[in-house]
């Protein structure tokens, strides 16, 4: 594995990354020896309670958008726990929340349940990825006050280009940065025809050097504070050509809305025959009860009491149409090798700094200001 463009990362991050790579073999031997010598102690410290109470280790929070049981998250947590260097915590959605964007659950109650992941303190949440990060950082769930790093991933499928805007895994890292916590998002460029489950383990292996370097630089205070890093791993992680600093592109898959026949849609009327029949029976009972109540009221003196009648259910005979969204990959002819999807397609691990700054680029600011000024001045003249 080679690192592209030596000075494209912050100097401290590059130095530590190189240090991690050069000492990787030695660290593995030392960790193996320590595990052999202290197997009993390691087993005890890997329990959930012991992990959460070990305040001597830096806290790492892991989340994702595909659910707490997804392979990418499980393999990543196992690797982090296996290093024995971090206090690993997990707060992830109970089910798949991919493409949920930066959505929060409001005016509804979410449920949090403890999850079983060996060596980590883990919870699954009936909410979005942003719910998970927001709750974890609020101080209401974990005993610690703030993690050193939030890692969102490893998710199945690329989050390059415009996909960043609706990606749940990107939103998890973005929410952490908004809350003032350094973060990384990691995605594997999964291809249905080519990829296999073991690719997630390889994706974890190639990600660890950058994760370790980021954690060391955060402790030294030299990790960038104005952005998080989106890490895109190529389809064949083992065959990657190294890390490459990239820029967010305008690339996106083509949305394709497919009409779904009513007889193939689970919510279509013919699937609801029994339920509709029961509904009609209840509606008839309601009408009978209302009629009986009206007859009684006609012969009974009024006592100024409000009597609630049972309303008949309304049948909805309006025609319904059903659609399903699919994304189709499109061919692009971009020539800029610094763009995220281009580098990813060429076999590099694309690392894109993503900012949440509200400051517009100067040319965009100028163009927008000119247009607004023209509209306002024209309106004033009229």
From TrEMBL:
PANTHER family in the cross-refs: 5'-NUCLEOTIDASE SURE, OS01G0709400 PROTEIN
Keyword Calcium: no
Record-annotated Survival protein SurE-like phosphatase/nucleotidase domain positions: 60-252
Stated name of the protein: Survival protein SurE-like phosphatase/nucleotidase domain-containing protein
Domain of life: Eukaryota
Annotated transmembrane regions: none
SUPFAM superfamilies noted in UniProt: SurE-like (SSF64167)
Family of the protein in this entry: Belongs to the SurE nucleotidase family.
Chain spans, region Disordered: 1-58
Tagged with keyword Metal-binding: yes
Pfam families recorded: SurE
GO molecular function: metal ion binding; nucleotidase activity
Keyword annotations from UniProtKB, A to Z: Hydrolase, Metal-binding
Native source organism of the sequence: Gossypium mustelinum (Cotton)
Compositional bias segments (type: Basic and acidic residues): 27-37
């Amino acid at each position: 594995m080679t690192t592209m463009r030596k000075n494209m990362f912050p100097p401290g991050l590059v130095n530590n990354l190189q240090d991690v790579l050069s000492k990787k073999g030695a660290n593995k031997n030392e960790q193996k020896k320590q595990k052999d010598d202290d197997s009993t102690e390691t087993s005890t410290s890997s329990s959930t309670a012991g992990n959460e109470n070990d305040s001597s280790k830096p806290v790492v929070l892991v989340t994702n958008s595909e659910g707490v049981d997804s392979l990418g998250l499980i393999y990543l947590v196992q690797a982090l726990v296996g290093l024995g260097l971090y206090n690993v915590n997990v707060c992830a959605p109970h089910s798949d929340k991919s493409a949920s964007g930066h959505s929060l659950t409001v005016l509804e109650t979410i449920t949090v349940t403890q999850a079983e992941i060996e060596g980590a303190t883990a919870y699954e949440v009936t909410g979005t990825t942003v719910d998970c990060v927001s709750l974890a950082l609020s101080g209401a769930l974990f005993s610690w006050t703030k993690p050193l790093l939030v890692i969102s991933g490893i998710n199945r499928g690329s989050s390059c280009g415009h996909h960043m805007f609706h990606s749940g895994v990107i939103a998890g890292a973005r929410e952490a940065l908004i809350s003032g916590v350094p973060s990384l998002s990691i995605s594997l460029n999964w291809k249905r025809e080519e990829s296999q489950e073991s690719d997630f383990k390889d994706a974890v292996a190639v990600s660890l050097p950058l994760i370790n370097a980021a954690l060391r630089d955060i402790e030294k205070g030299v990790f960038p504070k104005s952005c998080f890093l989106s890490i895109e791993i190529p389809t064949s992680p083992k065959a990657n050509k190294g890390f490459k600093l990239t820029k967010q592109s305008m690339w996106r898959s083509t949305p394709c809305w497919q009409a779904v026949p009513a007889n193939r849609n689970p919510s279509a009327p013919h699937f609801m025959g029994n339920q509709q029949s029961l509904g009609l029976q209840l509606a008839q009972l309601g009408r009978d009860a209302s009629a009986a109540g009206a007859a009684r009221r006609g012969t009974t003196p009024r006592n100024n009491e409000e009597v609630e009648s049972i309303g008949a259910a309304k049948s909805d005979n309006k025609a319904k149409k059903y659609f399903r969204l699919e994304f189709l990959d499109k061919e692009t002819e971009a020539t800029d090798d610094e763009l995220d999807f281009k580098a990813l397609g060429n076999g590099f691990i694309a690392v894109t700094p993503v900012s949440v700054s509200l400051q517009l680029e100067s040319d965009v600011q100028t163009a927008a200001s000119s247009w607004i000024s023209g509209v306002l001045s024209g309106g004033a003249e009229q």
